[in-house]
Structure formats: C-alpha cells, structure tokens
Design brief:
The chain has 4 domains: 85 residues, no CATH class; 149 residues, 3-Layer(aba) Sandwich (Rossmann fold); 165 residues, Rossmann fold (3-Layer(aba) Sandwich), CATH 3.40.50; 54 residues, no CATH class. Helices cover 48% and strands 12% of the residues. The longest helix has 27 residues. The strands form 2 sheets. Strands 10-9-8-7-11-12-13 form a 7-stranded mixed sheet. Strands 1, 2, 3, 4, 5 and 6 form a 6-stranded mixed sheet that branches. The protein contains 19 helices and 13 strands. By secondary structure, it is an alpha/beta fold. Helix 2 runs antiparallel to helix 3 and helix 2 packs parallel to helix 4. Bound molecules: glutamic acid. The site of glutamic acid (GLU) has 11 residues, from helix 15.
Length: 531
C-alpha cells in the first residue's frame, strides 16, 4: 500500500521534484523511488540524478556567467560533466588463496572501487563483511565522492571490501588476509598517499590499518617519505591522529547539535530547540553509534534504547552510553546482559517515541515499512546509505527531519584528512606552536597588567578559569576537535543554504547532494574533462 502511495506521489511529481528545465532521471532509475529493495548502487545513483534535476539550471547559469560558450556547447558541457560525475571511474575485483589454521584452503574475494578521481588521492574505508559485493563497494565509493565534496574535503571517493565474516577467522588469519589485500592493491597501483588512501569502516579498525601501513612501507612504499599517509585511522603510535577513533560519532553529534539549536529548522518539525528533555534511540551500537551516544548523553540527552545485532536494550530511565561502551569492550563486543537495561525485541525499541533516532548500522535499514512506523522527529544517519529512496518519501511526508549520511557521518573522513595532513607534515598538531601560543597569552595578560599599572590603575589581570584550562589542556585532540567542529559547521550551513535556495523543505539529502555536485562541477569545469 505504501509503495502504491509512493508511486502515485512520484507520478504526480509530489515529494520528489520533477525536472524543471528538462533534465530527466535516466530510464533505468525511474522505478527506484517505488522500489522497496533496490540495488544499493542504483539507489545512490538515483539520489544523485534526482539532485541534478533540481540543480541543473543553476549549473547552466554558472557556465553562462563563467564562459563564453554557445548555447549548444554549454549544454553539451553541462551534460558531459554530469555524466562523468555520476559514473564510477574503476572497480577492482580480485581473489586470493588463504590457508586456514586447520590446513584447508579458501579463496577470499576482495574489492576496491574508485568512484571519482577528480581530486587525488581518492579516499574511503575498507569493510570486512560476508555480503560485500561489487554493487556495494561502488555505492559506498560514490557516497564518499559526494560526502568529501559536501564537506569540502579535497579528496576523490573510493571504498574497499573483503567478503569475509571476520568473526570466523583468527587474528593471525585476519592479518594474513589484510596483508595480502594490501599487496594486491599495491601491485595494481590502488594504494598510496597520492593515489588512494583507505581507512577503517565496518569491522575494521586501527589494527587492520597498522597491518596495511606496515605491508605498504615494507614493499612498494619502502622509498617513499610519505608512505605513512597511504592509509588513515592508524593507531597514534603508527602515525594516527588523536580523535580519529571517535570522529565519526562526534561528527554525528555535531550535526545534531547544529540543527537542534537552529530555531528555524526546529520550527519546521515542531520541536523545542536545544537538548533539554530530549530522548534518543541508537540503531547500531558499533564505533559510530556508541560515540554519538556518549556525546549526546554528555549534553543531557536520555538514551532510551539501543538496537544491536545480537541483542536490543531498553531502559525508560536511560541507558548510560559510556558504561555500555565499556561493558561491550569487556564482553567480546556484545551488549547482552548489560545491567539496568531490559533485553527486548527490535520493534520495541526502534519505534519508541523519541526526539532523535541515530541510525548507525548498515545500508538499507530504513525501508518504507520502517519509515511509516517510526516515532521520532530527527534521524541522524551515522551509517552510509541507511534510507531507501522509497522510505525517504515517507519520512518527508511524515515531517521527519533527516540529517543525511553525506553530512552526518562526514566526521570520520574529515579527521582522516587531518591525519593525512599530519603525516605529510611529519609533525603532530600543536607540537611546534602550543607552548608558544600559551607563552604569548601569558605575556599578553602581563602586558595589559603593566600598561594599566603605568596608567596608575592597579589591577591583577589573570586568565579566567576557562581560559586557564584551555591553555593548560591545549593538545592535538583539542586542535583536531576544533577543526572538526569548524568543518562540520561549514558543511551544515552550506547544506541549509542549499535547501533554502532550492526550496527543498525538509529534503536535506537533496540539498547535500547539490552542495557536492556544485563543488565537483566547478572542479571538472576548471580542470577540463577529456585529454
Ligand atoms: N569509512 C568512513 C566513512 O565511511 C571513513 C572514511 C575515511 O576516513 O576515509 O566515511
């Protein structure tokens, strides 16, 4: 029934806007907004083309203002750039043997997809999951292209995957898989600081990144001064940056923080601005969901429930995200048996009446049926691609504000960019200037005190406790966090502006895609398309 409503709305040009000056969504994608199980890659393609239907006239106007092309040539150029931007540059699929600890042999399938190389290196994580396939890595690589552009991170988009269930392998086996995967990427010129820079994603972390950098440095990168920048998300000792582990979750929190404090946006969804008396449910309590929960809880948001793959928890008095994170770390990654919370079915938590729902599991979890039953005001997409286009229609019709993946989960790659810069600079943030900055501030206060004394005003000028704390605690983490807040703030404001310019109402996803498309468009226009 829902899909029928969606089909009707689509035909009538309802929630999804139809072409303004004739840009048509390609035929093979036209059924996507009515499909309750589209291919992930087609889904991302649809979101892209849908945004183009809205912004294509603005792109033409841009070329009109910046070039002297004839009408025909200008149209050809716009169409050419849009076609290149929407296509996937290259995808590598390879297989390699692994001898298991019981002596058996297995063939492992792996991928790396580089969606866009309009800027280099291209960037995106590597996931280990049994269902990984070519469509999935292409879709995730495409999301990275648009996410990076939307947040002004100067990288192309890529993603990799290994089709294994990591729980079925020993640490030694996982290490051999990771090293072999890296070697294959290196042989095929798919890794390197100037080429393609992986990072953690689902089921990978600093541990795997350490194996990757070590393999690279000992082989192809042995002569490369910048070899450590071939991957991000490394542990600190191996060239990582403080704040990267929690960055994606912190970014989710920052995006919520910005929107929930904006009276204009909150008026649209009838929600009192601010965190006071707000409640939340978290779907997916992995790295992203757990840190988002910790930061929300620090600001007074009550976490009523957590949806996890092995067990779903509920506590009307609130679940302490930090305690749960510690508990999970001590209990082999499981939340089962966490004291103070009741174990219930997924439906009991997912459809709870809350202000904020953080979706931080995997793609395609919000179907039209789920969207119709949700009882929240804001959805923050910590996962990549959690919402189907057919569900997006339902959410918009129901007046739920969705902070889309391109925006809400950009914190990880933003801090990866900082790590990359740290590696290229060969010095940690603040190492050269924190002490100088502190001394300068002390000298400044002293100078004010002396000047007053000379003017016969006897006053003791010292730092406020807040300023004193700031000076004594200044660290790489503070610099990275401030940089992340600055970058996410700019991205959120750009997306808000785009939503207003194009009269998109609550459709922040289209606004985020447009923000990205406009940036990439200018790069292609300036650099040229073909040799
Ligand atoms: N895997 C993360 C993402 O989906 C991080 C990518 C990166 O840091 O390159 O955004």
């Amino acid at each position: 029934m829902l899909l029928n409503a969606c089909k009707k709305a689509f035909r009538a040009g309802g929630v999804f806007r139809m072409s303004v000056r004739g840009y048509e969504i390609p035929e093979y994608l036209q059924s996507i907004p009515c499909d309750d199980n589209p291919s992930f890659y087609r889904m991302v393609e649809y979101f892209y083309h849908h945004a183009v239907t809205v912004c294509e006239p603005a792109l033409e106007d841009y070329l009109k203002r910046h070039t002297h092309l004839s009408d025909r040539k200008r149209k050809q150029r716009v169409a050419g750039i849009l076609r290149v931007m929407g296509s996937c540059n290259s995808t590598l699929q390879f297989e390699f043997p692994l001898q298991r600890k019981n002596g058996e042999y297995e063939v492992v399938r792996a991928y790396r997809s580089q969606h866009s190389v309009h800027r280099l290196p291209c960037k995106g994580g590597i996931r280990y999951a049994p269902g990984v396939d070519i469509e999935e890595v292409k879709a995730l690589a495409a999301l990275m292209t648009y996410k990076n552009a939307c947040s002004n991170i100067p990288f192309g988009g890529a993603k990799g995957g290994v089709a294994i269930d990591p729980k079925q392998y020993s640490v030694a086996e996982l290490q051999r898989i990771t090293r072999r995967y890296t070697l294959e990427l290196a042989k095929k010129n798919y890794i390197g600081a100037g080429i393609d820079v992986p990072a953690p994603d689902v089921n990978t972390s600093g541990r795997e990144m350490s194996w990757i950098v070590d393999t690279y440095i000992k082989t192809l990168g042995f002569n490369d001064l910048n070899a450590a920048a071939c991957v991000t998300g490394k542990p600190i000792n191996g060239g990582g940056v403080h704040g990267r582990v929690e960055a994606t979750g912190r970014g989710v929190f920052i995006a919520i923080d910005i929107f929930i404090h904006d009276p204009q946006w909150m008026k649209l969804i009838n929600l009192e601005p601010g965190f006071k008396n707000k409640t939340c449910v978290i779907e997916g309590f992995g790295n992203v969901g757990s840190y988002a929960g910790v930061y929300l809880q620090e600001r007074g948001v009550k976490i009523l429930g957590v949806v996890e793959y092995d067990c779903t928890l509920k506590n009307p008095d609130g679940i302490n995200a930090k305690d749960l994170l510690d508990y999970k770390a001590k209990n082999k990654g499981s939340v089962k048996g966490f004291p103070g919370a009741r174990e219930v079915g997924k439906d009991d938590v997912m459809y709870e009446q809350v202000d904020i729902l953080v979706v931080a599991a995997v793609e395609k979890t919000i179907t039209p049926a789920v969207a119709a039953k949700l009882n929240c005001k804001i959805i923050a997409e910590g996962a990549n691609g959690p919402t189907l286009p057919s569900a997006d229609v339902v959410l918009q019709q129901r007046g739920i504000l969705v902070l889309p993946d391109l925006l809400a989960n950009a914190g990880g790659v933003t801090v990866s960019y900082f790590e990359f810069l740290k590696n290229l600079n060969h010095v940690s943030f603040g190492k050269l200037n924190i002490k100088f900055w502190r001394d300068t501030n002390v000298a400044l206060l002293d100078s004010v005190e002396r000047s007053l004394k000379e003017a016969k005003i006897d006053a003791k000028i010292g730092p406020t406790p807040f300023f004193a704390d700031m000076m004594s605690e200044a660290s790489e983490l503070n610099i990275v966090t401030a940089g992340l807040e600055f970058s996410m703030g700019n991205a959120c404001r750009n997306v808000m502006r785009s939503a207003q310019t194009h009269s998109l109402g609550l459709d922040l996803r289209t606004a985020a895609y447009i923000t990205a498309i406009e940036k990439i468009f200018v790069t292609y226009d300036e650099h040229g398309l073909a040799l």
